[in-house]
Sequence to fold (510 residues):
Amino acid sequence: MNNTVIKENDKMSYSVKEAFKALRTNFMFCGPDIKTVVVTSCIKNEGKSTVSIELAKSLALSEKKVLFVDADLRKSVFASKYSENTKKVVGLTEYLSGQAEYEDVLYATQYENLSIIFAGAVPPNPVELLDSSRFKELIKNARDEYDYVIVDAAPLGMVIDASVISTACDGSIIVITANEISSRFANEVKDQLEKSGCKVIGAILNKVPDGSPHLMGRDEDAIQCLTLHPTYYHFSMCNAMAVQGVRSHALTLHYRVKEQSDLVLEHLFTEENRSMWGNPKLIFVPCAQVMAQGTWELLCRLMAQGATVALSGAPERDEYFRRAERVGQLIPGAKAQPVYGVERIAIDGQLFDLDFRRAVAYADAGHGIERIAYDADEENAVRVVNVGKGKLVHCTLPLELSESADAVEAFYRLALREADVENAAFVCEAGKPNVMIYPMVYADSVVYTLVNEGAKDAVAFTDKASGLKIETVLPAQRGCKLCLGKNGEVYGYYAPCDMKVGETWVPANA
Fold:
């Protein structure tokens, strides 16, 4: 075996890196039968080679044994663009034409689990070589040896090579450039792949401009909640305390309340970025302490327009840590006071004793945790105040910094009721706090992700679109996916346990 070094993309942003991790996860959820995949595009320069190698690297880093095959035999620039020390290589062309053996064209990389076969010389007959029994045998043997085989092919909208390659693969992926490729052109490429008998497992929208809507293909009205991640809280207060608060919010909302919420960082919560966070009915602001003045002003405008804001705590300092009266503008007499180790509060008729001692210990000197007190009643409380066409649902205490998930849950359920928000996708009938049900709603289907963070447990919920009841028993520390059409048809699933969808039993396949 030969050796090569893959160039690192130092210019890749954090969001792009996270997108490739999400791609890896979704790819692995395609099921155990999808091991060999061809990646193509409509035209050249759509980024298919970059997507292919980054997917291969991401899979390798997750301890999967991966073979990357550069099968663009017509005009490959992969060796020169992505490899540091490979000027002239023996590759796929030489192997398929019988001029080299398998060991001669296989290259190990700096990634322990990633091997590569380069394209090699440009042949006069690429289609004939790719349609040969020697190529099919190569893919078949690689399928047995590796966990995944990623084949980078020439653009199918220009030449037929990818369609020929796909006959030897389990599935195919189409890379599409945003705002350049028409839906008609993309569908023609998809149809060509399907004619070859290869399953199209997905499409990747690439080169999406910054600020573009992030809910590609999803029903934006299905998600009515937004969580404002307190960026300035991280910068101005103790980081450990901020992490505790945001984590408590997410776990309570997703696991206990079983409600969806998109997330936006505070510094991105601006009118200019409205396409990123949409038009939510309810905005959660957990454990507020430090908030930029522009953020507060935007929240007030949204409330005036009809949104409901569920705010816990005292956002009475701006981004420069200067004292600023915020809640007092909406509730006369409100003022900031320190939070002590143990506090008591009544929420929706229930009384809770809250332990803040760990959070108080986190707080830096001079940056103590604050709550809001009202002149008329010094005790902690939850108040609902009309602001224009909307509402402020305010809890005097930064609940998420306490040790009581029950109190946080009670506050969130009150806020959801005040905002007239209910889950748009499903109704939960049986599910413990350790089980998360997260739907992604599309035009004709819903993709459900179920995650069990605790011991083996049963879960049951009803899909609103189809009216079908879904029941399963999730093993400890496992998850599953279900793609359910709004017509009640099961389009796909990946599950370590049997699942009942309506009257149909879907057997485990993971």
In short: The chain has three domains: 2-206, 222-418, 426-506. The chain has 16 helices and 27 strands.
